[in-house]
Hints:
Elements: H1 2-42, H2 46-49, H3 62-70, H4 73-105, H5 109-118, H6 125-137, H7 144-168, H8 172-180, H9 185-196, H10 198-214, H11 217-222, H12 230-235, E1 238-239, E2 242-243, H13 245-276
Antiparallel strand pairs: 1-2
Helix pairs in contact: 1-13, 3-13, 4-7, 4-10, 5-7, 7-10, 8-9, 10-13
Amino acid sequence: MPRRAGLTRQRGFGLATAATHLILVVACLTILLPVLWTARTSFANRRIAYDPGTLLFAPTLENYAKIFGKDAFLKYFWNSLWIGVASALFSLAVGSLAAYSIARFRTGGRAFSLSVLGTQMLPPVALVIPFYLLAQRFQLLDRGWALALVYLSFNLPFVVWILIGFFQGIPRELEEAALVDGSGRLGAFWRIIVPLSLPGMLAAGVFAFVLSWNEFLFALVLTGRTSKTLPVALAGLMSSQGDQIGAICAAAIAMITPIVALTWVIQRFLVRGLTFGAVK
């Protein structure tokens, strides 16, 4: 009897494990199949791109040659890249100091720390017209750095909110030891807090970059030919004369690839930073 009961438990455990893996496989395929199909269409010619029944074909790079050659997507790629990086760096520089002040000195109290995130409750469409009027008044339309500043106003609350938790998790004794050794408050922040909270700062920076990279509405309203970003350029491939499916898929893959590569690289640093600990 005990042996039969053990076999029954093992069989039940095996069925539960198989069911769990099946659910995970289905979930992964649900997420990956659209991306894989987009990649497939990006390498198809115009005829095959509109024929979903054709799975095997000779791949071509004509869609990538079109968007990066004729449509100058390389310029729009660069605009999205430097605007996203600038916005993320500005958000980290300002947000880390604000989060440190809130975490260590309770600046503004608990109500202020909650109100920081509450600023994001306004829908972006409610702010488009005020930002457009300001940009028009000060002649900032079609300026990439002006768009980076607009993104800073959206990214900063999220960065502050994320970093508050990381700073609160660092023991105060480490800073006090640095202060006793003669370091100032800013020096203790730079030498102690920043290295220990590097995984959190990297995560916040990636989050801010991704928000800026994917943003469409403000980029559409505030940019022109000079500072147009990738999402706006991609939307331009859809017209009343028909959608260029192959070129759209190629542009979508071009937008996805840097985010995937960045996430993979940052993930390695995040794991390494989390395993270092406070004392080396």
